[in-house]
Amino acid sequence: MNKVFISGSRTQELLPKDFIRNIDNMIAKNMVILLGDSNKGVDNSVADYLKISVYKNVEVYGIKKEARFQILENWSFRKVDVPSFEKNEQKKQMIKDRELVLNSDYGLALFDTQLRKNRFGKYSVSSGTLRNVIQLLLNGKVVKFYYGTKENQFACSNLKSIDDLEHIIADMNDTTQKKYRELLKNERKILIETTKFTISDSQVSLF
After folding, report:
1. Quick check: pTM over 0.70?
2. Nearest by Cα to 187 from 115, 124, 139, 147
3. How far apart are CA 64 and CA 74, in angstroms?
4. Given this model, what pLDDT does residue 115 score?
5. Full set of structural domains in the chain with CATH
6. Helix (H/G/I), strand (E/B), else coil: 115
7. What is the pLDDT of residue 134?
8. Residues in the chain, pLDDT under 50
9. Cα separation values, 28 from 23, 32, 103, 125, Å
10. How confident is the model at residue 114, as a pLDDT?
């Protein structure tokens, strides 16, 4: 049974109608929907829609003993273990998101392209969603990518490669482009290191 990782910006509460139609198609095909447990933004809005739809094939991932939003009894909750030494909350959530990427077959993402001031007074990008999309593509997984063009207006592209994503990012603001390059460089480095580790393990197992 195919699994789809749905992700999106914590600043984006409203789900576009076409985005919802994609969820309806997943429900019709009885696909397993993988979802993070943020009680804000896209995670929370998608969870609410799935509850209204009374859809049961849902797996919610979190780093606590329980999800941060209420889940239905027939949904499954998967607690992702994080290293005890890791104190940074964002890095903990990144570990959870990486598990969602690895356990999915496809991705559906809703990216809020608006720049917003962070707690330090600087404009920032919704990097979590962008990182998820990069990870999915680097792992050879197709992503249906929704991204804001104007307030509450979204375009959609079917991404099959990093090149596809780069064509879209090239038309976005400098801050988003800079964050994209930073994330891509880091994720490629992690992928290379992980591959080396995996190859090393398999070589050892031969002897």
Report:
1. yes
2. 139
3. 19
4. 77
5. 3-205 (3.40.50)
6. coil
7. 97
8. 197-207
9. 9, 11, 21, 34
10. 84
